[in-house]
Amino acid sequence: IMISNPSQKLIDMGYDHSKMLFYKDTGEISSEVWDVLLYQILESDPATQEQFYQAHMTGDYDTKQAFHQHYFPQTNVALQNHVGTFLRDLEILSNKGVGKDIADHPRLPIIMQHNEFVKQTFLTVQAKIMEYA
Which of 16, 74, 104, 115 has a CA positioned 20 to 30 A from the CA of residue 44? Predict the structure, then answer.
């Protein structure tokens, strides 16, 4: 999840490029991803968003988990949409490399290999998300 200009509160919630993680082998999603997604979903209800933020900032795990359980359907759909959009975009980008001359594009094989690695990771994440649904 990439946010171009995160607010201080989003950063406080755990937004950091190094923490927005999906785990390749298991498809697990870092807690920071769930927290940031839910915080964004709650933008339409600032009072509830602030309650969630305060629970996070004070380490009130039980209240934070209650928010996650209550809003899980919305958070899960948001994550499904993100992963699905990313996979479609990656497919479009990967297709641009098909049929290109490696002599003209010497780094293309490594780019295509990287894209396949990322695709497999996101497919694993997608499968994990479907388990949650």
Answer: 16
pTM of the model: 0.86
Model confidence over 66-124: pLDDT tens digits?
999 999 999 999 999 999 999 999 999 999 999 999 999 999 999 999 999 999 999 99
7 Cβ partners below 8 Å, 6+ apart? none
Kindly report, residue by residue over 37-82, the tens digit of the pLDDT: 999 999 999 999 999 999 999 999 999 999 999 999 999 999 999 9
7: tokens are 């607010």
Q: For the CA atoms of the chain, what is the radius of gyration?
A: 18
Three-class SS of 72-125: HHHHHHHHHHHHHHHHHHHHHHHHHHCCCCCCCCCCHHHHHHHHHHHHHHHHHH
